[in-house]
Amino acid sequence: MESPMTVSAFGHRHEQVVFCQDEPSGLKAIIAIYSTALGPALGGTRFYPYASEQEAIADVLNLSQGMAYKNALAGLDLGGGKAVIIGDPHQVKTETLLRAYGRFVETLHGRYYTACDVGTFSADMDVIARECHYVTGRTVEHGGAGDSSVLTAYGVYQGMRASAQHVWGDTRLAGRTIGVTGVGKVGRHLVRHLIEEDAHVIVTDLDTAAIEALRADYPIEVAESDAALIAGDLDIYAPCALGGALDDDTVAELSASIVCGAANNQLAHEGVEKLLADRDITYAPDYCVNAGGVIQVADELEGFDFDRAKSRASRIFDTTMAVLDQAARENIAPSIAADRLAEERMAQIGRLAQIRV
Asked: What structural domains does the chain harbor?
Protein backbone atom coordinates (compact mmCIF):
# COMPACT_ATOMS: atom_id res chain seq x y z
CA MET A 1 0.00 0.00 0.00
CA GLU A 2 1.44 3.34 -1.05
CA SER A 3 1.48 6.34 1.23
CA PRO A 4 -1.00 9.13 0.54
CA MET A 5 0.38 11.87 -1.71
CA THR A 6 -0.69 15.44 -1.01
CA VAL A 7 -0.79 17.87 -3.92
CA SER A 8 -1.83 21.43 -4.53
CA ALA A 9 -5.28 21.86 -6.06
CA PHE A 10 -4.38 24.56 -8.56
CA GLY A 11 -7.22 26.98 -9.19
CA HIS A 12 -8.97 25.91 -5.99
CA ARG A 13 -8.68 26.97 -2.35
CA HIS A 14 -8.51 23.43 -1.02
CA GLU A 15 -6.38 22.69 2.01
CA GLN A 16 -5.42 19.20 0.91
CA VAL A 17 -5.97 16.72 -1.89
CA VAL A 18 -4.86 13.13 -1.31
CA PHE A 19 -4.48 10.42 -3.96
CA CYS A 20 -4.86 6.89 -2.61
CA GLN A 21 -3.90 3.73 -4.46
CA ASP A 22 -3.73 0.09 -3.36
CA GLU A 23 -2.98 -2.07 -6.38
CA PRO A 24 -3.79 -5.51 -4.90
CA SER A 25 -7.36 -4.48 -4.00
CA GLY A 26 -7.81 -2.27 -7.06
CA LEU A 27 -8.42 0.83 -4.96
CA LYS A 28 -8.01 4.18 -6.69
CA ALA A 29 -9.41 7.03 -4.64
CA ILE A 30 -9.10 10.76 -4.14
CA ILE A 31 -9.88 12.60 -0.91
CA ALA A 32 -10.32 16.38 -1.07
CA ILE A 33 -10.44 18.59 2.01
CA TYR A 34 -11.70 22.06 1.15
CA SER A 35 -11.75 23.61 4.62
CA THR A 36 -11.32 22.68 8.27
CA ALA A 37 -12.02 26.22 9.52
CA LEU A 38 -15.11 25.04 11.40
CA GLY A 39 -13.85 21.59 12.35
CA PRO A 40 -12.98 18.25 10.74
CA ALA A 41 -14.08 17.99 7.11
CA LEU A 42 -17.21 15.88 6.66
CA GLY A 43 -18.43 14.56 3.33
CA GLY A 44 -19.47 11.32 1.70
CA THR A 45 -17.54 8.83 -0.41
CA ARG A 46 -18.77 8.62 -4.00
CA PHE A 47 -18.07 5.30 -5.78
CA TYR A 48 -18.41 5.96 -9.50
CA PRO A 49 -16.95 4.75 -12.84
CA TYR A 50 -15.39 8.04 -13.91
CA ALA A 51 -14.27 8.18 -17.54
CA SER A 52 -10.90 9.63 -16.52
CA GLU A 53 -8.86 10.64 -13.50
CA GLN A 54 -9.29 14.29 -14.49
CA GLU A 55 -13.07 13.89 -14.37
CA ALA A 56 -12.79 12.35 -10.90
CA ILE A 57 -10.54 15.18 -9.70
CA ALA A 58 -12.92 17.85 -11.00
CA ASP A 59 -15.86 16.14 -9.27
CA VAL A 60 -14.19 15.69 -5.90
CA LEU A 61 -12.94 19.28 -5.86
CA ASN A 62 -16.39 20.69 -6.63
CA LEU A 63 -18.19 18.35 -4.24
CA SER A 64 -15.83 19.03 -1.33
CA GLN A 65 -16.25 22.78 -1.71
CA GLY A 66 -20.00 22.32 -1.79
CA MET A 67 -19.85 20.31 1.44
CA ALA A 68 -17.91 23.08 3.20
CA TYR A 69 -20.62 25.59 2.30
CA LYS A 70 -23.45 23.18 3.13
CA ASN A 71 -22.02 22.31 6.55
CA ALA A 72 -21.35 25.96 7.36
CA LEU A 73 -24.82 27.11 6.35
CA ALA A 74 -26.38 24.22 8.31
CA GLY A 75 -24.72 25.53 11.47
CA LEU A 76 -22.47 22.51 11.92
CA ASP A 77 -19.05 22.73 13.54
CA LEU A 78 -17.62 20.76 10.64
CA GLY A 79 -15.59 21.63 7.60
CA GLY A 80 -16.08 20.32 4.11
CA GLY A 81 -14.52 17.38 2.32
CA LYS A 82 -15.39 14.64 -0.13
CA ALA A 83 -13.91 11.45 -1.49
CA VAL A 84 -14.33 9.55 -4.72
CA ILE A 85 -13.45 5.94 -5.46
CA ILE A 86 -12.89 5.37 -9.16
CA GLY A 87 -14.65 2.29 -10.55
CA ASP A 88 -18.01 0.63 -11.01
CA PRO A 89 -19.18 -0.35 -7.52
CA HIS A 90 -21.23 -3.21 -8.98
CA GLN A 91 -18.06 -4.76 -10.39
CA VAL A 92 -15.09 -3.81 -8.20
CA LYS A 93 -16.47 -3.08 -4.73
CA THR A 94 -15.08 -5.63 -2.28
CA GLU A 95 -14.44 -5.87 1.44
CA THR A 96 -10.70 -5.63 0.80
CA LEU A 97 -11.03 -2.49 -1.30
CA LEU A 98 -13.28 -0.77 1.24
CA ARG A 99 -10.99 -1.68 4.11
CA ALA A 100 -7.96 -0.43 2.16
CA TYR A 101 -9.82 2.83 1.64
CA GLY A 102 -10.53 2.97 5.37
CA ARG A 103 -6.81 2.69 6.08
CA PHE A 104 -6.16 5.76 3.95
CA VAL A 105 -8.88 7.76 5.68
CA GLU A 106 -7.32 6.74 9.01
CA THR A 107 -3.96 8.22 7.94
CA LEU A 108 -5.57 11.67 7.90
CA HIS A 109 -6.00 11.39 11.70
CA GLY A 110 -9.48 12.88 11.85
CA ARG A 111 -9.06 15.76 9.41
CA TYR A 112 -11.70 14.04 7.26
CA TYR A 113 -14.80 12.07 8.28
CA THR A 114 -16.44 9.99 5.58
CA ALA A 115 -20.06 8.93 5.05
CA CYS A 116 -22.33 7.55 2.31
CA ASP A 117 -22.81 9.02 -1.13
CA VAL A 118 -23.61 7.76 -4.63
CA GLY A 119 -22.48 4.13 -4.87
CA THR A 120 -21.89 3.65 -1.14
CA PHE A 121 -24.26 2.66 1.64
CA SER A 122 -24.42 2.40 5.42
CA ALA A 123 -23.28 -1.23 5.26
CA ASP A 124 -20.17 -0.08 3.36
CA MET A 125 -19.45 2.42 6.13
CA ASP A 126 -19.53 -0.46 8.62
CA VAL A 127 -16.82 -2.21 6.58
CA ILE A 128 -14.70 0.94 6.29
CA ALA A 129 -15.05 1.47 10.03
CA ARG A 130 -13.26 -1.81 10.68
CA GLU A 131 -10.07 0.00 9.65
CA CYS A 132 -10.94 3.58 10.49
CA HIS A 133 -12.29 5.63 13.40
CA TYR A 134 -13.50 8.52 11.26
CA VAL A 135 -16.72 7.16 9.74
CA THR A 136 -20.34 8.19 10.12
CA GLY A 137 -23.59 7.25 8.39
CA ARG A 138 -23.35 3.70 9.74
CA THR A 139 -26.15 1.17 10.10
CA VAL A 140 -28.54 1.28 13.04
CA GLU A 141 -27.16 -2.11 14.15
CA HIS A 142 -23.78 -0.47 14.63
CA GLY A 143 -25.11 2.58 16.46
CA GLY A 144 -25.49 4.69 13.35
CA ALA A 145 -28.20 6.97 12.02
CA GLY A 146 -29.22 4.68 9.19
CA ASP A 147 -31.11 6.09 6.20
CA SER A 148 -30.34 9.81 5.95
CA SER A 149 -33.03 10.37 3.29
CA VAL A 150 -35.63 10.76 6.07
CA LEU A 151 -34.23 14.05 7.35
CA THR A 152 -33.06 15.14 3.91
CA ALA A 153 -36.72 15.14 2.85
CA TYR A 154 -37.81 16.78 6.09
CA GLY A 155 -35.31 19.60 5.54
CA VAL A 156 -36.53 20.15 1.98
CA TYR A 157 -40.07 20.30 3.32
CA GLN A 158 -39.02 22.97 5.83
CA GLY A 159 -37.26 24.90 3.05
CA MET A 160 -40.44 24.68 0.97
CA ARG A 161 -42.52 26.08 3.83
CA ALA A 162 -40.06 28.95 4.23
CA SER A 163 -40.16 29.66 0.49
CA ALA A 164 -43.96 29.72 0.61
CA GLN A 165 -43.82 32.21 3.49
CA HIS A 166 -41.41 34.38 1.50
CA VAL A 167 -43.50 34.33 -1.70
CA TRP A 168 -47.09 34.11 -0.45
CA GLY A 169 -46.82 35.19 3.19
CA ASP A 170 -48.09 31.82 4.43
CA THR A 171 -46.18 28.61 5.25
CA ARG A 172 -49.17 26.40 4.51
CA LEU A 173 -48.94 24.18 1.43
CA ALA A 174 -52.54 22.93 1.51
CA GLY A 175 -54.15 23.35 -1.89
CA ARG A 176 -50.84 24.11 -3.61
CA THR A 177 -49.92 22.09 -6.68
CA ILE A 178 -46.42 20.70 -6.25
CA GLY A 179 -44.48 18.80 -8.90
CA VAL A 180 -41.85 16.33 -7.73
CA THR A 181 -39.34 14.86 -10.17
CA GLY A 182 -37.74 11.74 -8.70
CA VAL A 183 -39.59 9.75 -6.04
CA GLY A 184 -36.85 7.45 -4.79
CA LYS A 185 -35.90 7.56 -1.13
CA VAL A 186 -35.89 11.33 -0.59
CA GLY A 187 -38.71 12.10 -3.03
CA ARG A 188 -40.96 9.49 -1.47
CA HIS A 189 -40.52 10.93 2.03
CA LEU A 190 -41.06 14.45 0.69
CA VAL A 191 -44.32 13.41 -0.99
CA ARG A 192 -45.54 12.02 2.35
CA HIS A 193 -45.01 15.41 4.03
CA LEU A 194 -46.82 17.20 1.20
CA ILE A 195 -49.79 14.83 1.16
CA GLU A 196 -50.12 15.19 4.93
CA GLU A 197 -50.48 18.94 4.31
CA ASP A 198 -53.22 18.33 1.72
CA ALA A 199 -51.13 19.53 -1.19
CA HIS A 200 -51.92 18.37 -4.72
CA VAL A 201 -48.84 16.36 -5.72
CA ILE A 202 -47.83 15.46 -9.29
CA VAL A 203 -44.81 13.21 -9.78
CA THR A 204 -42.51 11.72 -12.41
CA ASP A 205 -39.78 9.10 -12.21
CA LEU A 206 -38.02 6.86 -14.71
CA ASP A 207 -38.49 3.99 -12.25
CA THR A 208 -42.06 2.80 -12.78
CA ALA A 209 -41.80 0.56 -9.71
CA ALA A 210 -41.12 3.61 -7.53
CA ILE A 211 -44.17 5.33 -9.02
CA GLU A 212 -46.45 2.33 -8.43
CA ALA A 213 -45.22 1.88 -4.86
CA LEU A 214 -45.98 5.53 -4.17
CA ARG A 215 -49.37 5.31 -5.85
CA ALA A 216 -50.31 2.42 -3.58
CA ASP A 217 -49.86 4.61 -0.52
CA TYR A 218 -50.74 8.16 -1.53
CA PRO A 219 -53.30 9.98 -3.72
CA ILE A 220 -50.85 11.37 -6.27
CA GLU A 221 -51.11 12.32 -9.92
CA VAL A 222 -48.49 11.03 -12.37
CA ALA A 223 -47.30 13.20 -15.25
CA GLU A 224 -46.46 11.62 -18.61
CA SER A 225 -42.91 12.99 -18.58
CA ASP A 226 -40.61 15.47 -16.87
CA ALA A 227 -41.34 17.96 -19.65
CA ALA A 228 -45.09 17.59 -19.14
CA LEU A 229 -44.71 18.07 -15.40
CA ILE A 230 -42.60 21.21 -15.79
CA ALA A 231 -44.93 22.74 -18.36
CA GLY A 232 -47.99 22.01 -16.24
CA ASP A 233 -49.76 24.35 -13.85
CA LEU A 234 -47.54 24.22 -10.76
CA ASP A 235 -47.09 26.37 -7.68
CA ILE A 236 -43.83 24.67 -6.62
CA TYR A 237 -41.36 22.53 -8.55
CA ALA A 238 -39.22 20.09 -6.55
CA PRO A 239 -36.35 18.48 -8.50
CA CYS A 240 -35.32 15.43 -6.46
CA ALA A 241 -33.49 13.32 -9.05
CA LEU A 242 -30.30 14.09 -10.96
CA GLY A 243 -28.46 17.40 -11.04
CA GLY A 244 -28.76 19.91 -13.87
CA ALA A 245 -32.57 19.71 -13.91
CA LEU A 246 -32.87 23.45 -14.48
CA ASP A 247 -31.55 24.65 -17.83
CA ASP A 248 -32.58 27.40 -20.25
CA ASP A 249 -35.35 25.35 -21.86
CA THR A 250 -36.73 24.12 -18.53
CA VAL A 251 -36.92 27.60 -17.05
CA ALA A 252 -38.63 28.93 -20.18
CA GLU A 253 -41.42 26.35 -19.73
CA LEU A 254 -41.68 26.40 -15.94
CA SER A 255 -44.93 27.76 -14.51
CA ALA A 256 -44.06 27.38 -10.81
CA SER A 257 -43.42 30.35 -8.53
CA ILE A 258 -40.92 28.42 -6.39
CA VAL A 259 -38.19 25.88 -7.06
CA CYS A 260 -37.26 23.90 -3.95
CA GLY A 261 -35.99 20.33 -4.20
CA ALA A 262 -33.51 17.80 -2.89
CA ALA A 263 -31.31 17.26 -5.96
CA ASN A 264 -27.74 18.50 -5.81
CA ASN A 265 -26.41 21.00 -8.38
CA GLN A 266 -29.84 21.75 -9.83
CA LEU A 267 -28.68 24.66 -12.01
CA ALA A 268 -27.23 23.47 -15.33
CA HIS A 269 -25.02 26.59 -15.49
CA GLU A 270 -24.52 29.80 -13.52
CA GLY A 271 -26.77 31.87 -15.77
CA VAL A 272 -29.85 29.78 -14.99
CA GLU A 273 -30.49 31.52 -11.67
CA LYS A 274 -30.76 34.88 -13.45
CA LEU A 275 -33.26 33.34 -15.87
CA LEU A 276 -35.32 32.22 -12.87
CA ALA A 277 -35.14 35.70 -11.34
CA ASP A 278 -36.14 37.32 -14.64
CA ARG A 279 -39.29 35.17 -14.59
CA ASP A 280 -39.92 36.02 -10.92
CA ILE A 281 -39.37 32.42 -9.83
CA THR A 282 -37.92 32.06 -6.32
CA TYR A 283 -35.07 29.54 -6.11
CA ALA A 284 -34.27 27.97 -2.73
CA PRO A 285 -30.58 26.99 -3.06
CA ASP A 286 -30.24 23.20 -3.06
CA TYR A 287 -27.37 23.00 -0.58
CA CYS A 288 -29.39 25.10 1.85
CA VAL A 289 -32.58 23.01 1.82
CA ASN A 290 -31.13 19.51 1.34
CA ALA A 291 -28.81 19.67 4.35
CA GLY A 292 -31.00 17.44 6.52
CA GLY A 293 -29.01 14.36 5.55
CA VAL A 294 -25.66 15.77 6.59
CA ILE A 295 -27.24 17.08 9.79
CA GLN A 296 -28.41 13.52 10.48
CA VAL A 297 -25.02 11.87 9.94
CA ALA A 298 -23.23 14.67 11.82
CA ASP A 299 -25.46 14.04 14.83
CA GLU A 300 -24.20 10.47 14.82
CA LEU A 301 -20.77 11.76 15.87
CA GLU A 302 -22.33 12.67 19.23
CA GLY A 303 -24.21 9.39 19.57
CA PHE A 304 -27.24 9.51 17.33
CA ASP A 305 -30.53 10.82 18.67
CA PHE A 306 -33.26 11.13 16.03
CA ASP A 307 -35.32 13.74 17.87
CA ARG A 308 -32.26 15.94 18.37
CA ALA A 309 -31.26 15.58 14.72
CA LYS A 310 -34.81 16.36 13.56
CA SER A 311 -34.89 19.46 15.75
CA ARG A 312 -31.67 20.63 14.13
CA ALA A 313 -33.00 19.88 10.65
CA SER A 314 -36.13 21.95 11.40
CA ARG A 315 -33.87 25.01 11.52
CA ILE A 316 -33.52 24.74 7.75
CA PHE A 317 -36.75 26.77 7.75
CA ASP A 318 -34.99 29.69 9.48
CA THR A 319 -31.88 29.36 7.32
CA THR A 320 -33.93 29.41 4.13
CA MET A 321 -35.81 32.49 5.32
CA ALA A 322 -32.51 34.22 6.11
CA VAL A 323 -31.13 33.39 2.65
CA LEU A 324 -34.22 34.56 0.77
CA ASP A 325 -34.62 37.69 2.89
CA GLN A 326 -30.98 38.70 2.37
CA ALA A 327 -31.26 38.03 -1.35
CA ALA A 328 -34.30 40.31 -1.57
CA ARG A 329 -32.78 42.98 0.65
CA GLU A 330 -29.52 43.17 -1.29
CA ASN A 331 -31.07 42.45 -4.70
CA ILE A 332 -28.80 39.45 -5.27
CA ALA A 333 -29.41 35.85 -6.27
CA PRO A 334 -30.35 33.47 -3.42
CA SER A 335 -27.29 31.30 -4.16
CA ILE A 336 -25.02 34.33 -3.68
CA ALA A 337 -26.78 35.17 -0.41
CA ALA A 338 -26.35 31.57 0.77
CA ASP A 339 -22.65 31.62 -0.17
CA ARG A 340 -22.11 34.86 1.71
CA LEU A 341 -23.77 33.56 4.85
CA ALA A 342 -21.68 30.39 4.72
CA GLU A 343 -18.44 32.28 4.06
CA GLU A 344 -19.20 34.73 6.86
CA ARG A 345 -19.67 31.89 9.35
CA MET A 346 -16.50 30.11 8.21
CA ALA A 347 -14.51 33.33 8.62
CA GLN A 348 -15.99 34.36 11.96
CA ILE A 349 -15.96 30.98 13.70
CA GLY A 350 -12.71 29.93 12.03
CA ARG A 351 -11.01 33.03 13.45
CA LEU A 352 -11.61 31.78 17.01
CA ALA A 353 -8.92 29.13 16.49
CA GLN A 354 -6.41 31.98 16.73
CA ILE A 355 -7.30 32.37 20.40
CA ARG A 356 -4.81 30.09 22.11
CA VAL A 357 -5.87 27.92 25.03
From this structure: 5-66+79-142 (3.40.50.10860), 149-339 (3.40.50.720)
